[in-house]
Amino acid sequence: MYRSHILICGGTGCTASGSAAVITALENELKARNLENEVKIVKTGCFGLCAVGPIMIVYPEGCFYSAVEAANIPRIVDEHIVKGRPVKDLLYKETVTESSIKSLNDTDFYRSQKRIALRNCGVINPESIEEYIAYNGYEALAKCLNEYTPAQVIDIVKASGLRGRGGAGFPTGLKWSFAAANAADQKYVCCNADEGDPGAFMDRSILEGDPHALIEAMAIAGYAIGASQGYVYVRAEYPIAVNRLQIAIDKAKEYGLLGKNIFGKGFDFDLEIRLGAGAFVCGEETALMTSIEGHRGEPRPRPPFPALKGLFGKPTVLNNVETYANIAQIILNGPEWFAAMGTEKSKGTKVFALGGKINNTGLVEVPIGTSLRTVIEEIGGGIPGGKKFKAAQTGGPSGGCIPAEYLDLPIDYESLISIGAMMGSGGLIVMDEDNCMVDIAKFFLEFTVDESCGKCTPCRIGTKRLYEMLEKITSGNGTLEDLDEMEKLCKYSKNNSLCGLGQTAPNPVLSTLRHFRDEYIAHVVDKKCPAGVCKDLLTFVIDADKCKGCTLCARKCPVNAIEGTVKQPHTIDPAKCIKCGTCIDLCKFGAISKK
Amino acid sequence: MRSLDELRAIKARMQDQMGIRSDATEAGKIVVSMGTAGIAAGAKDVVLAFSENLGKNGIYNIAVIQDGNAAWGANSPVVEVTLDGQDKVTYVNMTAEKAAKVVAEHIVNGNVVTEYTAG
Asked: Residue B6: exposed, middle, or buried by beta-carbon count in 10 A (0-12, 13-18, 19+)?
């Protein structure tokens, strides 16, 4: 029996930071010290604190080593594993106190979290079906097949109040009941693992860290609606996730948990992966199904809804990865347990991927109803550099901004919609005083213009015209009338586009217009960018009082836009200046600023 | 997999090994001192003996922790056993064989092995 387990994160984030080398170094060191039979190395999924990866946790003590390098391993093995002295200077700083080492659960990052969808991520080896089983894996499926009728399973999901975690928040139990009610010779269960929102990696982490949770839930859904075949549509840009999921599917088949006559109950369910090819629109449910069918990913008009005519024209349930990740727990713990968390209309927890201007970038899961302030200041560790919080963007290109005045708003589906934002799939990008909200809107439109499939005119042409208007505004050529025109076009696109892409593409514009209209007005009336981002509206100026005439900026300017003699204040020629910012970075006297 | 029983058998087998990963080992902890004197006197074997014997008895919610900072000298290896709700018991001059007896008598049956304790 192993006396120690060492868990190392093998998710995409930590792998990119070098965790593979750490694992190899650890394997070699343990072998060299004859500890292979005493210490078990476990490669896990994402722990969540991606900002300080590669991450390593040593049990039984539960010591959390952060930013581990391969070079640290010999010392950690010698001091901690052999001699029993955890290496304090390599531990996550917040856990180290004078007298003891704190548990992870007592740190600011983890204290307010409630990990349900992420419960196994960072805890088990995702490539081991037996580790999944050790933590109650596949018991929910067994329970459904042995104790519940399909209708009872649907009632449980309905009673839990679970809503779709892909962004729209449609009640999951209700969706399943529609598909169950439609008779057909074949039905399908699909999973949307396309995760197209820039900055979102919740689904990726679940696929990499706990793929069996998805498999089990899809089998349960199959039993509930009467489907014998499932497809997981994963974006090809997630190679680690695809690999782990395939390994898990193969293992599940080997153990008879997928295939024919599961648990001897006469229930057949098979699962296959289908790869996406990088189209954001294929995250839309009908475009996704069209893509699985082998056609170009374009949405279809609804009705008929997928529950009646979905994949291959058959009744289909399509849910997001995170939605599925909650199912087994709801079955095992009962719907009341789940409904006890969250707010009145939004039950359970939500996973957020924190990114942007925040110290603790990473993955967090909190009960719905937690305030944005808790997520950003306590769990996220606040804004780096002591900068001021400006807004948090949720929902990616389909979403809106939440400004500072709503920091104490409990986050749930309805409250966010009421302020012109949305829950979205979980990507949460934090912005500070140095972000320009008009530029942010332009950034998202640039994305949606590229991703529009082109099928319907309001989206194909509407997004392009919106983007052009934003370019006009950020280059100093906009007018107040343009703001009104833009708003009109936004509303038109929302009301007339065929699918969610076109219907929600205007959201970043509408949301920033609503909460940051003063920035737009500064751009079109004063021709200024208050945050100092929009290059065409900036003038780089040297303060004559601070300039010492050292000539460094003049020498380094790539376009020779700076003039001046030694020891005399220099000047920048605005006609030549390309606003690259090199001079500001170089000036040792802080004499150059952008206005 | 034909039955829930098969599933539960795998779970039971795995839980023996996985219990070590819980952040809160509810039933107690066994701390083996690993100062230089301790290591020289064979504390390593004591640690392994505790692990193995707990496993053999199907006990997976007690952590076996090495403490390299403790400064015991003459009576090493020293082992402190703290079971939930009970006072700490300090065993001295431990060996692998004595560890097996402590598990069987103290941890499984609840009887402190007084002949191995300090003083």
From this structure: middle
